[in-house]
Amino acid sequence: MTPGFTRTLCTAIAAATVWTAAAKAAECPHKDALGTSRVLRVDAATSPRVGLKSFPQTLPLGDREVVLTFDDGPWPGTTPRVLAALARECVLATFFLIGRSASAHPELVRRMAALGHTVGHHTWSHPNIKYLKPDAATAEIDKGFAAVEKALHGTSTTTPTTPFFRYPYFEMTPATLDLLQNRGISVFGADLWASDWEPMKPAQQLKLLTERLQAARKGIILLHDPKAQTAAMLPAFLRYLRLNHYRVVHLVPAAAAANARAVQNPK
């Protein structure tokens, strides 16, 4: 298989995923489900860094619009429960995966993509990039890209088909930020989170998250799919969103969306 053919195949798969996401956003077979209200195409040229906890700008979301993101997966004990909760409400999310976990559980990575979720990147082993030497930091990021691409498409490459990246601990360096921006990769922070790295009961976590959302009214929400308390809380949180008239926005890369339109409408 030639490199050119591999790139074409990966682009076609990414394009198909975008159209699947758009279809899922428009239709939901479950009565009274929350659903996914719209698809937002993110272009690194105009949104290189987003999330108010780390950067001065975030995504262009309207009042009561939220983006659901999950870090640190996949994890077989909890990720399937998260995927099931999202599927029951016809909600699409973005998962920032650790390469090492993706390599260990490629079937879960492919399942995420098959369901229409966006698969982003979160390094190979979740180190604090700020404390690595520049070459080691670049290697850690690229190894994560390659592992997730291998799990998704069967081919290792440091050019991700979904150019979305989130730093572990939101700790970054100017050099790696410049590296990612020069390679056309959007860096995601968050606008609010559930603090689910702290042990707490699902009901406590739900209260904390909904109170923060009431104050913010919109934004990129950070959760962690390997956390059992989050998997247990998620169905109630999705019900809260539905009952309080929040709308879920699904993210896809702009380049894949453009390729999807070209595939759908060839000259």
Commentary on this structure:
The strands form 2 sheets. Strands 1, 3, 4, 5, 8, 9 and 10 form a 7-stranded parallel sheet that branches. Strands 2-7-6 form a 3-stranded parallel sheet, covered by helices on one side. Strand 3 (65-71), helix 2 and strand 4 form a beta-alpha-beta unit. The protein has helices at residues 3-26, 79-88, 99-104, 106-114, 134-153, 174-182, 202-216, 228-243, 254-264, and strands at residues 38-42, 49-50, 65-71, 94-97, 118-121, 164-165, 186-188, 192-193, 219-224, 247-253. The protein has a single domain, classed as Glycoside hydrolase/deacetylase (TIM Barrel), CATH 3.20.20.370. With 267 residues, it is an alpha/beta fold.
The main β sheet shows up as: 7 strands, parallel
Classified in CATH, the superfamily is Glycoside hydrolase/deacetylase
| Count of individual domains | 1
Name the poorly predicted regions. Answer: 1-25, 257-267
- CATH architecture label: Alpha-Beta Barrel
Our measurement of the CA-to-CA distance between the termini, rounded to an integer number of angstroms, reads 27 Å
> And the CATH topology?
TIM Barrel
Radius of gyration: 17 Å
Question: Beta-sheet strand percentage?
Answer: 15-25%
Oligomer class = single chain
**Overall SS class:** alpha/beta
Question: What sequence of helices (H) and strands (E) makes up the elements?
Answer: HEEEHEHHEHEHEEHEHEH
Tally of helical runs: 9
Number of strands: 10
Average pLDDT figure: 90
